[in-house]
Amino acid sequence: MRVKAVAISCFFVLWAQVVVVQEPKHINTPKIVKGIYLTIETFEEQKSLDRIIALCRRTNINTLVIDVRSNGTNAFVIRNSRAKVKIDALHSLGLYLVARMIVFWKPDGWFDPASEHRWDQIARASRLAIELGFDEVNYDYVRYGGPNEPQSVTPMEQRTPIIRNFCQYLKREVREKTGKPISVDFFGVTFLRSESGVGQQVENAIENFDYVMPMVYPSHWAAGTFGIKDPGKSPYEIVFKSLTIGWKKFVDYPKRTAQLRPWLQAFGVGSIYPLQTMVYTAKDVEEQIRACYDAGCVGWVLWNPSSSYEKYEQALK
After folding, report:
1. In 3D, which of 84, 101, 70 has the Cα closest to residue 24?
2. Cβ proximity of 262 and 285 under 8 Å
3. Distance CA 258, CA 104 (A)
4. Theoretical Cys-Cys bridge with 205: which of 212, 242, 304, 305, CB 3.0 to 4.6 Å?
5. Chain centroid to CA 255: how far?
């Protein structure tokens, strides 16, 4: 169902002029999430946000996943009060809003995933996002650094238990205290095998979150995966197989609380092994979405690092 229009005299004016700040009114999770990712800058800059609103009104997009800051005191560079006005206005359009929070990565390195201070900071930032009106909190970089990233001194065998404890902490301090859903991003390959080097094990995601969001971008699989010579050029096959082959191990897992909602590719990369660019089309996006539905997912979210989706618009209708 398309985002409903509302009787606001003009969408392209300052939100503070059209919406009165109130207590947050949350929206229930759509039966099928159809989402796109927004950078902080896209949310804060009114012209960019207006462009996204116009796209939502022309398509079936019902969900925005928006970057927020994780310091626990201010969700954006703009004041929280002004951000809340924008959030209320987006809600008035029927949009489900997810706050995406980067957990352990930072520009100059990594936070220690075992740091209880960082855990508390993330929990406070999460509750703040929900107080501002976000309907869900999504967590990314819930892991240690990979082979080409800054390395931790934490012994390999301790990493998965530490990440598991953190996931349990989020369930207790955010999910149970706020009553709002939480989701987590994991590498797509974790559905096939645990990644002890970074501490990601699917069981720890599906036991503690409402939604697990594997990053199953076709460009991020090595040549020959699932018997496919060029994964980047086989969007349906890669997404469908990566979801069904891995997920079937967990569908009947007795402690599972999470449902499946993957991240999909909406950027022009054909392969990262080695790095190759390609023209990514609406058809490529449409094929990934079709694979999600065929795999029984409860939705999907497109990732584009610059929040530019107009050339994929036909796939979103």
Report:
1. 84
2. no
3. 22
4. 212
5. 23
Picking from 125, 119, 126, 127, the residue whose alpha carbon sits closest to that of residue 73 is 125
Cβ proximity of 282 and 243 under 8 Å: no
Element spanning 291, H or E: helix 282-294
- Token pair, residue 199, equals 């501490």
- DSSP helix/strand/coil, 102: strand
Tell me how far CA of residue 223 lies from CA of 122, 233, 270, 304, in angstroms.
Answer: 37, 11, 11, 23
Q: Which tokens in the block code for residue 51?
A: 């462009």
Single-letter amino acid, residue 8: I
- Residue-level pLDDT, tens digit, the chain, 317 residues: 444 444 333 343 444 444 444 677 899 999 999 999 999 999 999 999 999 999 999 999 999 999 999 999 999 999 999 999 999 999 999 999 999 999 999 999 999 999 999 999 999 999 999 999 999 999 999 999 998 899 899 999 999 999 999 999 999 999 999 999 999 999 999 988 889 999 999 999 999 999 999 999 999 999 999 999 999 999 999 999 999 998 888 888 999 999 999 999 999 999 999 999 999 999 999 999 999 999 999 999 999 999 999 999 999 99
Given a contact cutoff of 8 angstroms between Cβ atoms, the answer to whether 218 and 250 are in contact is: no
Helix H or strand E encompassing 101: strand 96-102
3-state SS, residue 209: coil
Q: Does the pTM of the predicted model rise above 0.70?
A: yes
- Nearest alpha-carbon partner for 37 in 167, 157, 213, 161: 213
CATH class of 15-316: alpha beta
- CA 152 to centroid of chain Cα atoms: 25
Q: Which two tokens stand for residue 188?
A: 């797509």
Using CB atoms within 10 A of its CB, is residue 93 exposed (0-12), middle (13-18) or buried (19+)? middle
Between CA 201 and CA 164 the distance in angstroms is: 8
Alpha-carbon Rg for the chain, nearest whole angstrom, is 19
Domain boundaries, the chain: 15-316
110 — phi, psi (to 5°)? -140, 145
